[in-house]
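ingest -> fold -> write
write: protein_1
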Amino acid sequence: MAKIKKRYGKWGGYLEKLIYEKPKRKVEKEKVNDPDYYVRVDNQFFIMNNGLIGNVYIYIYIYIYTGLAGYFFVLFTVVVRLFFNKSLSFIFLFLLFLLGTFFIAYHYTRPKKELVLNRLGGLITIPNTLYFKPYTMPFKDALAAWSVKNSGINPTGPSLSLLHPNGFTSIDVMGHEVIEDWSFIVWYMDKNRPLPPGSAFDEYRKSDYERRKAEGFPKPLYPSKISTPEATKEQQAERKRIGGW
């Protein structure tokens, strides 16, 4: 089981495991099982395709055009240096050719990049970069922060970023509504609370309620600045009577 290296500690810059506000992200039932959105959504797992985070076309341009740029540079260098009777560094050109090939090949062979929330197991699986395996770790040890990784003529807003257990790299997840998306994740991963808003969860609310009732409605794992009531007033009254909250 992966765990973030202790040398980074719990110091500033990380978001508290707190439901800051009611998330606007409401997972709709019709988007479940659509590989472009949510692979699985129920009372046990929330699995989201993280490979399409942001604008997918931007990533296509990066992979394809970077590869083509490498090929063009190799061809341009060869033509110019031959024209001026200059010697060629074939090793450098070969490495550049391989780099261009890699970017194009990676576009067509890149592995699945899925954000996996295991509600009952208390685990989160964070996608990794390139072909490296994803990290699975206890959610209580996960660190989240704001991320602004781009600039220039087409900058995007900040993203929710999860730190990898290596303590150095991170991955952007979900979208650009940092506080709302993090609130959604914390809410879903608090197995002692009702499921968050969204029609995709509706058919699982009763069974999730019965599970928590059988456990005596234990207190929430993480704090919240907003109310997280049960689906009905009757269920809410029962939770308060048994669990006291």
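write: protein_2
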Amino acid sequence: MIALLGDDRGHRSHQELNALRPQLAELGVETEWVPTDSGFDPLTSSGHRIAAFDGVWLVPGSPYADDAAVLAALTVVRERGIPFLGVCGGMQYAVLEWTRNVLGSAATHAESDGAGEDNAVAALACSLYGEERLVTPVPGTRFAGWQPEPFVGMHFCNYAPTAEAVATLEKIGVVVGATADDAGAEVLEFPDHPFYVTSMFQPHIGALAGAPVHPLVRAFVEVAGRRND
């Protein structure tokens, strides 16, 4: 069972994600939307218990209805080794949580906190909202093992982790798994975790047209499926 942590607002990205759910069901994966403002407690059985899911997918759509709940859930995911996939906003908030709680540094989001020197997430110089870019896997990374060849990825992003924030995370073992023009780090692989991978491109785009499940998503659900083995 995988949690789709986020707020279904009917955006194309969310429509594509809902179209992907039957494909995931064919792989033996159940999915459940967990709205960020649903009053769930990441640690207890009150509402949706994030720690009980086999995997958590933090979906696009930031700022979220309850950013504090999202960040609390990310702490649980990181500390408990729950397989995690963060896409677009999911990538941005993962960088915030790691920078604040692992590095112990101030980290703000320009979209919700305003532009500032401590922004770990800032506005892109060139908006990638509704934009395709050639995504190039970095040889030798986990991501390149799943997706070795460059491919065209769709984006709906106006914000992204700053180059400075990414460089600081690299010092503690975070790996850039792919890059693209105007986006910088397209994929981040976080260390000391069974599966903690984030992407700027949205791997579920194409589901409405019947595209096959992206290798990144397949890798995620495979690890989630082995969690209790």
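write: annotation protein_2
Strands lie at 2-5, 31-34, 55-58, 84-87, 108-109, 119-137, 151-161, 175-180, 184-189, 196-199.
The chain has a mean pLDDT of 93.
pipeline exit 0
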